[in-house]
């Protein structure tokens, strides 16, 4: 949600990819792709954003904390980031999502958005369940 220099962003993508491969992820056994090259993420985020009310986003603790660290000037990107996260989850019809405690509320938002969408348009998205680790 913060602007990055293009060269730094490109290097970060390469570094992250190298780290994923170093962890043992085998690209012959799973899909490894650059999410920013999949326009459906942003397209679904737009649709889901039209179903999400602003007061709900304003209540999320991450918004409050990051906004405070930005001298009370949070960006629209920061405010709507949880909707993009929901799109990332729902686009692939995920049923279970590994999350840390700090992301539980964002997953709950994704669950609520999926339920709202399904109620309005018919059963389409599974309601994702969290996988919480004690580590």
TrEMBL record:
One of its GO terms (cellular component) is mitochondrial matrix. GO terms for biological process: mitochondrial tryptophanyl-tRNA aminoacylation. Signal peptide: none annotated. It holds the Pfam family tRNA-synt_1b. Gene3D superfamilies: HUPs. InterPro entries: aa-tRNA-synth_Ic, Rossmann-like_a/b/a_fold, Trp-tRNA-ligase, Trp-tRNA_synthetase. It is an enzyme of class 6 (ligase). SUPFAM superfamilies: Nucleotidylyl transferase. It comes from the Eukaryota. Its EC number is 6.1.1.2. Keywords: Aminoacyl-tRNA synthetase, ATP-binding, Ligase, Nucleotide-binding, Protein biosynthesis. One of its GO terms (molecular function) is ATP binding. Belongs to the class-I aminoacyl-tRNA synthetase family. This is tryptophan--tRNA ligase. The lineage of its organism: Eukaryota, Metazoa, Chordata, Craniata, Vertebrata. The gene is Wars2.
């Amino acid at each position: 949600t913060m602007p990055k220099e293009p060269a730094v962003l490109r290097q970060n993508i390469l570094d992250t990819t190298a780290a994923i491969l170093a962890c043992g992820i085998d690209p012959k056994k799973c899909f490894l792709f650059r999410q920013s090259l999949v326009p459906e993420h942003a397209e679904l985020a737009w649709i889901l954003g039209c179903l999400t009310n602003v007061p709900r986003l304003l209540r999320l603790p991450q918004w409050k904390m990051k906004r405070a660290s930005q001298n009370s000037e949070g960006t629209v990107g920061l405010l709507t980031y949880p909707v993009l996260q929901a799109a990332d989850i729902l686009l692939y019809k995920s049923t279970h999502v590994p999350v840390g405690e700090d992301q539980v509320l964002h997953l709950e938002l994704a669950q609520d958005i999926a339920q709202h969408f399904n109620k309005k348009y018919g059963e389409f998205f599974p309601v994702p369940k969290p996988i919480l680790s004690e580590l």
